[in-house]
Amino acid sequence: MPIYEFKCSKCEEFFEVIVMGQEDDREVVCPKCKSKAFQRVVSATNYAMGSSGNATKGVHTQERTCSTGTCKTYTVPGS
Question: Which of 12, 33, 53, 74 is least surrounded by Cβ atoms within 10 Å, i.e. has the fewest?
């Protein structure tokens, strides 16, 4: 069962959806604001080398200039 991660375009909440199978046609909405406007994000691998005290947690963003203006990359920890 794959887990897909999304970012709400309205409230910017990150959330996950577990897909049970090909026939899983339930409506996906943001659990925080109930918006249907969201983008699927690429999950980052979540592991740390060394002691657990060195691991960083949470969503991180990186802004850069690109051909269409300013682009933002989100690093989302896995579950």
Answer: 53
Contact assessment for residue 77 and residue 57, using Cβ atoms and an 8 Å cutoff: yes
Position 10 scores a pLDDT of 94
CB proximity list for 48: less than 8 A, separation 6 or greater: 54, 55
Residue 79 has pLDDT above 50, yes or no: no
Q: Which one, of 25, 19, 2, 12, lies nearest residue 78 by Cα? A: 2
CA pair distance 73, 67, nearest whole angstrom:
15
Instruction: Let me know if residue 50 belongs to a domain.
Output: no
The rounded Cα 24 to chain-centroid distance in angstroms is 20
Domain-embedded: residue 33: yes
